[in-house]
Every structure is written in structure tokens, then in C-alpha cells.
Amino acid sequence: MVSTIDDIAVVKRYLPDRGPNQHTLISTRNPNAHSILQVPLPETEQSIKMLCHLLGMDPESHRIPSNAVVEELKHLPLAIEQAASYVWHITRGFAIYLAEYRCRRPELHR
Known about the structure:
Blueprint: H1 44-55, H2 63-72, H3 77-91, H4 94-109
């Protein structure tokens, strides 16, 4: 089960201690969440480069299909990383990934 945290106070006592080289990633889709660092989403060019870098591909030669993926994923870095892994290990192509993602999106977001 995956859940998001909208109010950090609810889980603060469960979070690990902070220290050097220790990081905790908390995600939420709630734009009104308080006390959580907001990181701006990467621009299209950065998103394409990230996706292609993770796959060892040249961004210029894969611009159109990689752009379709990052736009579909709304430039969310974690989603891009997971898409790259899925393409690498399962589909080996952006078109198949997009077709499967679009078909299964409601199930995946549930």
C-alpha cells in the first residue's frame, strides 16, 4: 500500500533522526500540505535529459517520444525514474510504455 503525507505533524515522531548523509523523502499530491519542502518540477528539457540519461539514450535522437513520456508524467522526477526503469526492464520502448501506462493509469494511481 502506498500513501502520501499531507500533514508532517501526523508522522513526525515516526521519522528517522536527521543527520549528515541521512535523507527522508516524503511525497504528496496535496498542494496545501504544510511544513514540507517544496521542490519545483524540472522544465521539459531537464525532464527529457533525465529520462534519456537513465536509459543511456541521446536526448536529441529520442526527443519526441521522451517528451511524450515526461509530459504524460507531468515532469515528476520520481515518476520519470520509475518510467525509465519500466522501459529498461519491461517494454524497451517509449510507445509501448505509454500505451500500457495510459491503459493502467487509474489502477496505478489507486
